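Researcher: We're reviewing a set of sequences before deciding which ones to prioritize for further study. For each one, I'd like a predicted 3D structure that I can look through quickly. This is Neurochondrin -like protein. If possible, include the structure in C-alpha cell form so it fits the rest of the review sheet.
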Amino acid sequence: TCWSYHLGATDFDSIMSKLCAEFGGVQDESKFELCDTIRIILKSYPRINFDGSVPKWLPSIQRGLRDVLLSKIGKMQRDPAIKLVAAVLEASDFDWILCDGGSEEERGKFFMILLNLVCIEVIMHLDEKKLDQMIQESDLVVACFYVLEGGVNCLVNEKINFIQESKRMQLLRFLSDGDPNISDVKERYFICALIRVLAAWLAEETAASREDVYSILPYVLKTAADTFEVQKLEKLRSLPGRGGKANYSNFSEETVLASKNQPVIHPPDTLRFLLPALCHLVTEDPSRQIFLDLKMHDTLYIYASYHWSILESYKQWLEEQVSKN
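Model: Here's the predicted structure for Neurochondrin -like protein, in C-alpha cell form for your review sheet.
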C-alpha cells in the first residue's frame, strides 16, 4: 500500500491529526469537503495496521461529525458525513461514538440520531426500487449498512428492538427477489451488505418471520459460499512465501482471473457474518435440510481448513524468520 514504507504509520497519523483537527474546528462549507478527504485517506490505510488503541485524532472526527449530523443539513452535507462514519467503523468499533467524554444523555442522543438517520436512508433506498436504481447510490447504502451493523453489535446486550419489523420485512422481500446469477461487482457487493445486516438480526432473533427466512435461505447461503470462493485465492496468494505458487484447479473462473492480475473487487467475508445465525438455523428441520441440500457442511469444512492454512502459513513463515536470524 502507499503507507507500507518505514515511517508510513507515523506520517498517516500526522496527516490524520491535522485534517481531523481542522474538521473538528471549522464551521463552513469546507467541513463537508473534509468529510470526503478524510474518508479517502482513512480507507487507504490497511485496517490490519490499527493496533486496537484509540488514535489521537479519533475524538476530533467524533466532534466534527456531531456538529454535522446534529445540525439542520441537506442531502449534500449529510451523505459525506454518513460515508465518513462508515469508514471510521471499518477502522475502529462503534465505541468511538462515545469517546468524547460528554454526558450520558448527550452521547445517547448522538447514537440514536445517527442510527435513525441511516435507517431512514435504507428505507428510502430499498422501498419499491429495483436493483439497478439502487446501485446509483450503492456507496451510500452500503455505508448505512456498515453503521447498522455496528449499531447491532453495540446494542447486542440491550433489550431494544433495534431492527423494527418494517425494516426487517423490506430486507426479506428484497432478497426474495434476488438474482442468483449476479455478475456485476457493485451489485454483488450491495447484496453482500444486505446479507450482513440480515445476518446480524438472525443471530439475535431466532423465531420471527421463519417462513420468509426459509424462502430466502438458499439464495443467501449460495451467495455467501460464492463470495468466499471469490476472495479465497487472493488471500492465499498474499500469504508469506505463497505468492504465485497456488494450484488453481479447485477455484472458480473468477478466482483464476484474479490470479492473472485482472482487476477483481473482492466482496466481504459474508460467510463469516452468517456463522452465528447458522448456529440457530441448523437446529431447525427446514433450514437444516436446506443447509444439507446445498452441501454447506462441505463448504464450512473448506472454510475452516482455509483459515487454518492461513494460520499455519504465518506460523511457518515466522519460524523461518527466526531460524534465519
